[in-house]
Amino acid sequence: MGIRIFSLLTAKFLCFSAPVWVPYHVSDLDKCQHLLLKFQPELQTDHPGFHDEAYRKRRQDIAQLAFDYHQ
C-alpha cells in the first residue's frame, strides 16, 4: 500500500511506495540542509548572474559556508 499525493504543479496524483520522510522538529532540518544549500552552477541562461563569474563565485562561497556551519 502506497501513499498518493496530489501535485498542484502537475495536476496529477503522485504515488509513493515507501513512506515519505518529513521533518517533525527544527533540528530534523539539519539532516537535509545539504540538499537545500547545494550550489547549483547550472543557472538558467536568462538569469542575471549567468555571465557574472564574481556572482557565481560569491554564491558558491556562501553555500559552502552554510554547508560547513552544520558539519
Largest sheet geometry: 2 strands, antiparallel
Q: Give the total of domains.
A: 1
Order of helices and strands: EEHH
Overall SS class: alpha+beta
Instruction: Count helical runs.
Output: 2
Could you describe the 3D structure shown?
This is Biopterin-dependent aromatic amino acid hydroxylase family profile domain-containing protein. InterPro entries: ArAA_hydroxylase (IPR001273), ArAA_hydroxylase_sf (IPR036951), Aro-AA_hydroxylase_C_sf (IPR036329), Aromatic-AA_hydroxylase_C (IPR019774). Keywords: Iron, Metal-binding, Monooxygenase, Oxidoreductase, Signal. The structure is a single chain. The chain is an alpha+beta fold. The chain is 30% helix and 14% strand. It has one domain (22-71). It contains two helices and two strands; from the N terminus they run ββαα. Strands 1-2 form a two-stranded antiparallel ribbon.
Notable traits:
two-stranded antiparallel sheet
SSE order and pairing:
Blueprint: E1 3-7, E2 12-16, H1 33-36, H2 53-69
Antiparallel strand pairs: 1-2
Can you give me a brief rundown of this structure?
The protein is α+β, with helices and mostly antiparallel strands. 30% of the residues lie in helices and 14% in strands. The longest helix has 17 residues, at 53-69.
